[in-house]
Amino acid sequence: MKILMVCLGNICRSPMAEGILRAKSTHLEIEVDSAGTSSYHYGENPDVRAVHTLRKKGINISNLIARQFTTADFDAFDIIFTMDKSNYDNVIALARSNQDKQKVRMLVNELHPGSNGEVPDPYFGGDQGFEDVYNLIDEATDKFLMRLQNEVQ
User: Is the pTM here over 0.85, yes or no?
Assistant: First the structure.
């Protein structure tokens, strides 16, 4: 299974989500990547605050490189998790078919089904915002993996 995490610039939320899910799924056949809906930070490493927050949890995302979401990602990934409604709308707008659209989900719906809740963008906030985002993504990815394991059994 291949999973893509998507946020706006691919330097805060989505690389954090990539790192968290990748760390949790080492025993599973899951590949995880991340992308942004904009090209603002193309080629950059994750925000130092995101790197620091995950490093405290034993996860290294410092080597990730920001890239922009493309329509080819619909072919490469089984599930595309977006961090907020704007990201969701931007990805859906690029969908070529209903099959593409069915791959796109909001991550917080794993934690609170049907809520369309958002992972807040911590970029303009302080360190606590990154901790809060970590906690939310951590919980949502736990629920996702639990659901995935139940579906396999």
Answer: yes
